[in-house]
Amino acid sequence: MTDIRYRPIGADAPAVLQLTDVQHRYGSSVGNAAGNPAEVLRDINLTLRAGEKSVLLGCNGSGKSTLLKILNGLIAPTAGRVSYQNEEITPARLKEPGLHRRFRGEVALLFQNPDAMLFNPTVFDEIAFGPRQLELPDIEARVRHWAELVGVDTHLRRPPFGLSGGEKQKVCLAALLALEPKVLLLDEPSAALDPRSTGWLIDFLADLPVTTLTSTHNLGLAPELGSRALVLGEDHRLIYDGPIQALLGDMDKLAAANLVHTHRHRHGDIEHRHTHVHDWQ
Predict the structure, then answer these.
(1) What is the pLDDT of residue 28?
(2) CA-CA distance, 220 to 278, in Å (whole number)?
(3) Is there a contact between 172 and 114 (Cβ–Cβ < 8 Å)?
(4) Residues paired with 230 in a beta bridge
(5) What is the CATH number of the domain that holds 50?
(6) Helices and strands (H, E) in the chain, number of each type
(7) Which of 80, 141, 196, 268 has the fewest CB atoms inside 10 Å of its own CB, making it the most exposed?
(8) CA count, 13 A, side-chain hemisphere, 69
(9) Are β-strands 79-84 and 15-26 bridged in parallel, bridged antiparallel, or unpaired?
(10) Is the residue at 277 inside a domain?
């Protein structure tokens, strides 16, 4: 098998998260009369290195969210190995207090739907929840610092459920950053944001001194979110791992991942077809 893994100039940076021969299946696939398990990821091998900013691309259903949850230890793969700083991560190992505390404090996942992360009575309590659970120092200072940086400091006493979608996403981001993680995994983070807030998010993430992996199927945003692209194909395999600019110039690879499409155009009486990149969220 051809090794497609990207080895950039900083390939000597220490490995942070690593997937080796990872596969994943969910129960019985919907609409599958035979009741066969639904395959979501196949033969995934990748390494995230300290300081990297990478983008995870793929069409809906390719397995992006599942891959992020596996990297975050929320679900265990059906097969293969997950490692954090060269230490294997399994459900049993995450029950060990020391590893649990370190991993949960250092690897954070921002869900696409902020409502899935919100359950506290106020924005202050939402941001403070993780630091309280991990018994971190200076909780109030952490909350106020990150609330101000993401722009929700005027909402600290409000219930998060009454905020706009973009404000909720900012609260969730502040709640994760209050832990001061080393790795930030983001699942379609601009989905709930308007254009102005999306621009803010891009600038904010660019300045964060942490390893980031951001999933999206918006090709216009992708090069702003990282220099390395990881692409999941419709067969749930990693079909590209390399520089993002090279990917954006490869229409065949983008078409294979269902990230571009072809449709007819009319110019008067002349009809022709073109491949197009259309961004959507």
Answers:
(1) 45
(2) 8
(3) yes
(4) 56, 241
(5) 3.40.50.300
(6) 9, 12
(7) 268
(8) 15
(9) antiparallel
(10) no
pLDDT of residue 11: 61
In angstroms, rounded to a whole number, what is the distance separating the alpha carbons of residues 137 and 102?
A: 15
Tell me which residue range forms the domain holding 242.
15-257
* 248 assigned to some structural domain: yes
pLDDT at residue number 52: 95
3-class DSSP assignment, residue 14: coil
> Using CA atoms, how far apart are residues 180 and 5, in angstroms rounded to an integer?
29
Q: Where are the alpha helices (DSSP H) in the chain?
A: 64-71, 97-106, 123-133, 139-150, 165-177, 195-207, 222-225, 244-248, 251-256
Work out how many domains the chain is built from and give that number: 1
Encoded tokens for 31: 């609409």
CB burial string 206-236: b at 16+ within 10 A, e below: eeeebbbbbbbbbbebbebbbbbbbbbbeeb
Q: How far apart are CA 192 and CA 115, in angstroms?
A: 11
